[in-house]
Design goal:
two-stranded antiparallel ribbon, globular
């Protein structure tokens, strides 16, 4: 209930509204972050699996983006004390909540594409 009140308060204030949008964009902006998050939503956890699933991302870029997502509290990295060392990535609780954002983006994208195709 308090989350709803907070959301309503933020929507009343243009400055807070824009700040909240900027915070979201800072976390998910870029070409690769959403594909990484989408991959982790489906349970792909190891670096090599992520790289194969995403396609054209370079290992260096994947590593950079994972570090940024980890710093922002969206992804968690777990190192296993095995030989060879095994590293897995998974979404935090906050990261899992991005699913609603992704679903909305997909819905909007499909509707937008349809309206642009009709106009064009």
């Amino acid at each position: 209930m308090s989350d709803l009140k907070e959301l309503l308060e933020v929507k009343k204030c243009p400055r807070q509204y824009v700040l909240a949008v900027n915070d979201t964009l800072n976390v998910i902006s870029g070409k690769w972050k959403m594909p990484i998050i989408a991959s982790l939503l489906y349970g792909i956890h190891r670096f090599k699996d992520l790289q194969e699933n995403i396609g054209k991302i370079t290992p260096r870029m994947l590593s950079k983006e994972l570090k940024e997502l980890e710093l922002n509290g969206v992804v968690e990295r777990k190192v296993f004390n095995t030989t060879p060392v095994r590293i897995e990535y998974h979404l935090t609780e906050s990261g899992k909540k991005i699913l609603a954002v992704m679903d909305s983006m997909i819905e909007w994208g499909l509707e937008h594409r349809e309206s642009v195709v009709e106009v064009g």
